[in-house]
Design a protein that fits this description.
Its EC number is 3.6.1.54. By secondary structure, this protein is an alpha/beta fold. It has a single domain, classed as 4-Layer Sandwich (Purple Acid Phosphatase, chain A, domain 2). Helices cover 35% and strands 22% of the residues. It has helices spanning 20-37, 66-77, 96-101, 132-141, 144-151, 155-166, 173-182, 186-195, 255-258, and strands at 6-10, 41-46, 81-85, 104-106, 110-114, 117-122, 202-205, 211-216, 220-225, 233-237, 242-246. The strands form two sheets. It has a six-stranded mixed β-sheet. The longest helix is centred in the first third of the chain and has 18 residues, at 20-37.
Length: 259
Amino acid sequence: MPTGKNLYFASDFHLGANSYASSREREDRIIRWLDTIRDDVAELFLMGDVFDFWFEYKTVVPKGYIRFLGKLAQLTDAGVKLYLFKGNHDMWMFDYFVQEFGATIITNELEIERGGKKFYLHHGDGLGPGDRFYKFLKKFFRSKVCQWLFARLHPNLGVGIANAWSRQSRIAGANDAEKVQHQQEWLESYSLEVLKNRHFNYFIFGHRHLPLDISLPDNSRYVNLGEWVNYNTYAVFDGVDLKLKWFEASPKPSPKEMA
């Protein structure tokens, strides 16, 4: 990676979630963050659920987010490498961001090495034990048959159905924090399983909506990027170390600390 340049990781913006006003406020906050990192970012990893819903018809994409998309265009035009991960809310990304920004679309995991450190990157959905029903749904929703059928719907109907479905899965940090108090974090469990066969310095995920930085065996760490409704958290790698940070907010106690 270039000297003086960093890797930045963020997840779960959920643009479009809740009201238009709250989504716009969140969009403006994200743009302010992108402005603060533009001089030292080499690669930007947006690791899923950037949008609360996204589907690319052949000639139509969801309206809105123009300021955010414009900022991404500024960054990529300046040479920043952009990676967009498919989350469970925006898994129907196809080639729009590739054509507009030269982005790399990541469907599942991405393994990279930077500064002599190995990274395992994934949105986090469908990993670890249990949740068989969601894993079945994920496989179906990502199938070409499902995508073809959905594309046959008029956008007004298709987006309306998708938004109604999306509202059933809202950010609830307090409930998730309570779960962590009573059971091992499932993405931590998944990371430990991977470590049995292969070593990574960092496992970075989103999806859980909880900012977490957990030490694992063999000098490895599991970092969850949290989300931008309650926490405004992201991670930065400067070529030596990875740090979990808060933007325009004081760090809040992690669920592990509250246990």
